[in-house]
Amino acid sequence: MQTGPIVITTPGEEPILIAVLGVTGAGKSTFINRATGSCLPVGHSIVSCMYIIYNVRLFLIRRPGTKDLAYADTRIDGKLVRLIDTPGFDDTERTDADILEAIAKWLEGTYRQGTLLTGIILLQPISTNKVFGSEARRTRLFKKICGPNSFSNVVIATTMWSELQNANLGQQRVEERKGSKDFWGDMVNFGAKVMKHEDNAQSAHKIIRILLHKQKTALKMQVELDQNDGILHATSAAQQLYRDLGTISEEENRRLQELTRELRFAREEREQLLKELKELREKVEILERQKEKLESARVSHSIFLHPDDSPRY
User: Fold this and answer.
1) Rounded-to-integer distance, Cα 65 and Cα 135, Å
2) Which of 55, 170, 192 is nearest to 122 (CA)?
3) Which CATH architecture has domain 16-220?
4) pTM for this one?
5) Domain boundaries, given as residue ranges, for the chain
6) I need a surface site. Which of 47, 84, 186, 208 has the fewest CB within 10 A?
7) Which phi and psi (to 5°) does residue 279 adopt?
8) Which tens digit of pLDDT belongs to each residue from 7-48?
9) Strand order in the sheet with 79-85
10) Number of Cβ within a 10 Å radius of residue 37
11) Which residues of 169-204 are buried (b: 16+ CB within 10 A; e: fewer)?
């Protein structure tokens, strides 16, 4: 099934591979659709599709409520460009450990086949008004996935400008992040570019053009997986996520202890406290399961089916 414009390719033509990363809701699928005219699914539906790329081909596996990796092709300045839509962190249906494992499987598989990225586009919504917490954790994780040697192949594209009533406020947020090594500062110092995405094809193409003539790069996570036989916990990215999950778990456990003490003396609102206590315990359990996954997961020699009739998007 063809859901976008047909891109004519010549035999043996190798596409320029650019991965699009960002949290869930950052606009990854929309960015790719703007750039290519394709129709990648945006967000989650009741039953959506999971796409897996292996050796730069698309394979479609039906799985309710999930979406992994998909791609769409386009031509820019005569060059065949393949934009890869990756799963986003902070997802409501899958844990960050699950997402990192999915990305690791793809990175390991393509690296083993000798397939390297030319560029990485990190989409960052500018409508958020706080430069700490979740965004800081995701930025640290992104840096660990890429590594400093690949920062010059990165474009940080800011999105969601239309949600701001004051564009000057958005520019202030950009400058804050560019000036902080905890956010984009060190990436910019190593050659990463920061650009505004205006949610149209021209803007998307302008961003992509920055990467068209870059040399291919091996991401830090790819090299680490290759050197450690696909053991996820041996990668800097998994170790960073493990530390972040541990910090969150400690905070939630402290809150759990506080609620337990409150419950002992509470005469009113006991039902509400019990509900909060139950939800908090479930959250801590999920955090611990994520840490266990990161410690045990291994992604080397992942097996992918590749039927000849796989649909392209």
Assistant:
1) 25
2) 192
3) 3-Layer(aba) Sandwich (3.40)
4) 0.84
5) 16-220, 232-296
6) 47
7) -65, -40
8) 666 677 899 999 999 998 899 989 999 999 877 666 543 233
9) 70-76, 79-85, 16-21, 119-125, 154-159, 193-196
10) 14
11) ebeebbeebbeeeebbeebbebebbbebbbeeeebb
